[in-house]
Protein: FAD-dependent oxidoreductase
Organism: Parageobacillus galactosidasius
Amino acid sequence: MKKPNVVILGAGYGGLMTTVRLQELVGINEASITLVNKNDYHYETTWLHEASAGTLHHDRVRYPISDVIDRNKVKFVKDTVVKIVPDEKKVLMKNGELTYDYLVIALGFESETFGIKGLKEYAFSISNVNAARQIREHIEYQFATYNTEEEKRDERLTIVVGGAGFTGIEFLGELVNRVPELCREYDIDPHKVRIICVEAAPTALPGFDPELVEYAVNQLERKGVEFKIGTAIKECTPEGIIVAKGDDIEEIKAGTVVWAAGVRGSHVIDESGFEAMRGRIKVDPFLRVPGHEDIFVVGDCSLVINEETNRPYPPTAQIAMQEGELCAKNLAVLIRQQGELQPFRPDIKGTVCSLGEDDAIGVVFGKKIWGTKASFMKKMIDNRALYLIGGPSLVMKKGKFKFF
Ligand code: FAD
């Protein structure tokens, strides 16, 4: 019998977890496994705010995919997926095409600008290693240029963060630690620097415990962040942003605008004609595309409804990894034609949001934590993600061990 061809698209949390678990579960003679990814490295998306602020070097957040896959069992293809043609069981890439018997879509997220004028053109987004590196270098360039110009333009030292959700707050936490270093490095008076966070919702970190939100906002304000809550970004221009609170319109001149207020699934989902909401496919209980039982979706391209709230689970690395584990098990069932497919039941252990190197807030196993305890927990979560994919050797190579 012909070995089934399993093709996995994307080597983020979801795709890489599917790959490493599947290579453990099935033998060389049972299936051909191909993993496709844009780059030959995996990056820890949940660390990108650190690389963007410059508090962690971008090489620390990535590692070669070859470090964690078994080359005897998995063929790696470095290419960019352009489109999936389900009727022909084909994947079209920039430099070739692949056919599959089973497909796993794990292409992750992209920035969603909700049609706000100018954001795509003039704002940065924390979306991958190169984007993070560009943000870090852009901010550094603004600081480096400030003192070399005859006519000082204070707006060079204004950084606007659009969105006080998880990503926005984590980025601000790093920025408030990085800015004093930049001021020392480039002989800049720290009072000249403005870090402004604009959030349209009536609170920062919507959905988080209010007491913890207050803690986070106070900590960040104490370190210099100005929050503009209940304020919407109307437009981004080469000079900065235009915001509105009720009828009040304000222009904020800024050298750097980082948009951290929206994500969507990969555009490849739309290109391929799947029914989706902002690039996210509502999967069946076994993580398959309805009507396409040979296609699984994991991570930020999948949409799973939380039956308790009747709302979609937010896209997280935690869910992407759990989906990857289950997807590998379900693929093994199909490959062996033995056993039964298992439905996806997320096991949400908690959420921890960092506020810089040594501070954080979170709810873990139902308990509220903050400060250094939460920060320690955050690093343990980061190390655990490495362990689950690459075992102790990856933790030793890339782990975070500076706890206090
Ligand atoms: P990704 O991890 O985004 O991986 C997608 C992969 O596909 C990448 O390797 C990419 O290069 C590749 N790819 C994309 N398009 C193509 C293409 N066309 N062709 C080939 N390859 C392609 N979640 C948490 O649970 N906890 C946190 O603390 C947390 N913090 C976060 C902090 C930040 C700054 C950000 C941005 C996100 C954070 N998240 C967090 C969310 C989490 O990172 C995502 O939910 C998670 O990365 C989704 O995993 P994924 O496998 O779907 O996609």
Remarks:
- Residues 371-398 form the longest helix (28 residues).
